[in-house]
Amino acid sequence: MPTLTGQNTRTVTGYIVTLLDYPRWIIEREVDFTNCHLSGGFDVDDNQCAACLFGEACCWLNMNRIAPSPNMPLDKLLQALNAAVDYLRSPSDGEPPHPDYCECDTCNWLREAMGFLRTHRHSA
Ligand SMILES: [Zn+2]
Description:
By secondary structure, the chain is an all-alpha fold. It has one domain (7-120). It is built from 6 helices and no strands. The longest helix is centred in the middle third of the chain and has 16 residues, at 74-89. Zinc ion (ZN) is lined by residues 98, 102, 104, 106-107. Zinc ion binds at residues 98, 102, 104, 106-107.
């Protein structure tokens, strides 16, 4: 997992942009576009997208495929971060939830991201 010590991290928005690197990497790895009739181009109005197993992740990926600019409004960045947290918190099918003390990359990222969201809940 990349450490959060890049030059971007001096500002709040730069910090969120850096935080979003990890879910982008995970979601890109998890979502399987082999059978996608749109080749991964999420369409809100498409019935198949609405019913798709990867719909939520694919939708996120399409909004966040490119690293956001630190000039993006803070509320947009927080929204993307919240959606990524929700996605990574919901366990995949058939997988037991991770224990509280779990030290895997995803759990470490979630702790960092959720801690950040808690401290910034009222500033957005
Ligand atoms: Zn874990």
